[in-house]
Amino acid sequence: MALILALTGKRPLTGNDCFLSPNATIIGDVVMGHQCSVWFNAVVRGDVNSIRIGDRVNIQDGAIIHCTYQKAATTIGNAVSIGHSAIVHGCTLMNNVLIGMGAIVMDHAVVEPFSIVAAGAVVTENTVIESGYIYAGSPAKKLKPISEEQRKLLEELSGRYVMYAGWYEEAGARGA
Questions:
Q1: For the chain, what percentages of helix, strand and coil (3-state, to nearest 5) are there?
Q2: Can you tell me the distance from the alpha carbon of 128 to that of 57, in angstroms, rounded to the nearest whole number?
């Protein structure tokens, strides 16, 4: 069963039909929408500020979601995919966003809808990732517009993770 810890009087809340892997960690002031998934070794740590997560968000293996004390909460919209080992810290991710594997998004950054932060990219503090584009590099820079195929992926990816989570439920491996 996932490690779910109350802290400073705040207990994480999850919506309906969420998959929390058996070794996921969710702490403190975290509110998660419906059909979300927090995968193996992922940490969602609302200990020093709030974390708000929309519906159909997948936080993949080894990812870390955190915030900054009294300065930067984390807000994640609907249909967001956060890749393996990514770090999302004190920022805002709007709807239909993909944060690539190993990417880092820092305090007060805003990732607008239908955009992609490429694998390994570093989005520095206060950066705005413009809707409809791929950003890559360190620091992340606008690379090119997303293609129609990539836009379709952003619309479908969160649903795929809802399906994957269902496989674990069928196998009796539900962590929450």
A1: 15, 40, 45
A2: 21
